[in-house]
TrEMBL record:
InterPro entries: Globin, Globin-like_sf, Globin/Proto. It comes from the Bacteria. Keywords: Heme, Iron, Metal-binding, Oxygen transport, Transport. The lineage of its organism: Bacteria, Pseudomonadati, Pseudomonadota, Gammaproteobacteria, Pseudomonadales. The keyword Iron applies. It holds the Pfam family Globin. Belongs to the globin family. This is Globin domain-containing protein.
Length: 130
């Protein structure tokens, strides 16, 4: 199986439980006060749904789909809009990998590497639009 197949299936297992996104934001917001502050006025229930779709977009782009929607995310997160600091994306990735480890019963260190490989182009695109 290719890394994108492994990750696609892993994400399917993770998404069976809505707690995946609750835990992701708990881990992500615990990683820094600056991050937590960015979400003080956010409707987190809506945000969890948006993220569910955003991660799927990253996986689909790694599988060859158009990156138009990721470019829109790059724009909303850039210095003129949410002003998301480039160094925060490492915390985002760590929080996501930790949540996969907790939620995917088939997690292995190799699967973690597949996730890192698949996430990289999408994260680079969004962060690179800063
Ligand atoms: C909003 C995805 C990284 C903070 C959003 C939305 C999506 C999304 C889908 C909603 C659509 C939009 O408003 O454009 C992602 C993905 C990321 C990422 C896929 C990683 C590649 C980050 C990071 C931060 C962040 C590192 C740092 C704090 C926010 C904020 C909002 C947002 C503050 C708006 C929340 C609100 O409406 O109140 N993100 N994001 N995101 N994201 Fe991200």
């Amino acid at each position: 199986m290719t890394p994108t197949d492994l990750v696609f299936q892993s994400y399917g297992r993770c998404c069976r439980n809505d707690e995946f996104f609750v835990d992701f934001y708990d881990f992500f917001m615990s990683s820094s006060d600056a991050i937590r502050n960015r979400f003080v006025d956010t409707d987190m229930s809506a945000q969890r749904h948006l993220l569910r779709n955003g991660v799927m977009q990253i996986i689909l782009v790694a599988r060859g789909m158009s990156d138009r929607k990721l470019k829109d995310l790059g724009q909303s997160h850039n210095r003129h809009n949410y002003n998301i600091q480039p160094e925060w994306y490492g915390l985002w990735e760590e929080a996501l990998l930790k949540t996969v480890r907790v939620h995917d019963p088939e997690y292995t260190p190799e699967l973690r590497e597949a996730w890192r490989e698949v996430l990289k182009p999408g994260i680079d695109l969004i962060r690179g639009a800063y």
